[in-house]
Amino acid sequence: MHTDLVAALDIGGTKIAAALVDGRGGILVRAQRATPAQEDGDTVMRAVTDVLGDLTASPLWGRVAALGIGSAGPVDASAGTVSPVNVPGWRGYPLVERVRSAVGGLPVELIGDGVAITAAEHWQGAARGHDNALCMVVSTGVGGGLVLGGRLHPGPTGNAGHIGHISVDLDGDPCPCGSRGCVERIASGPNIARRALANGWRPGPDGDASAAAVAAAARAGDPVAVASFERAARALAAGIAATATLVEIDIAVVGGGVGKAGEVLFGPLRKALTDYATLSFVRRLEVVPAEMGTDAGLVGAAAAALTGPVKAAAAGV
After folding, report:
1. Quick one: which of 10, 39, 59, 172 has the fewest CB in 10 Å?
2. Whole-angstrom Cα distance, residue 137 to residue 299?
3. Beta-carbon neighbour count of residue 203 at 10 Å?
4. How many CB atoms lie within 10 A of CB 287?
5. Mean of pLDDT values over 40-67
């Protein structure tokens, strides 16, 4: 029997998605459940098991060779555990072991969700053809991942490239992570909206006070909204430039809800990069929007399953 498919799990605070994916990144079967994020750990795991049950019921399941998981973090790939900030019932939760037993002992690869999206963008999206890339998700939080020397670089625990917690403002606001002035504390959607509101921006009659609403106001020329996005752009530029200077990437891919703001973000971001990425080897660094959309987490988890240590060892890599 052919074993030419992999299973993928994308676990976040809102939804648990799963898919059967072929070697070209095509999604053949899908399943999804809402994440019972405020329930105890076993209840959350039941939702995962239900989603996996939908996959194992497929006639294609017999062709599955491995399973990849992209999970909200922190994750610890070396221990096979997850402690997602937005799923309090999971702290050091043995997800790999539980999933492996739910799928009959198949090989399981775990990576953080930022790394999963990086894997997807490198395989099928905006970082395709680039050997050294940073891919970022700018949303409720700010995450990311690295491709170095043509390969995904998740690091020992699966968290390498977590650009959201580079400090770019030494005396900045305390970040929930414990540090100060982190990229995430300035550039995440809720923090863009928070700054705009603090500086006098007011939502329209619909009461929408999200970063998307601030982006719409910025597009319409509201100076406070524009300034909030410019501040976020500078934080992102400083973090991207620091990363490029450290590991010599030539492209940064920006996705997530805030990444969808378009020129309101990318205009000031590219301009700010010229202030921070000043050395000769980082001056050609380009910043582009992500291409993979909502399936990025699944496609990236599949990429991890297709190229993980288990598969690489089997292939003699």
Report:
1. 59
2. 15
3. 15
4. 21
5. 97
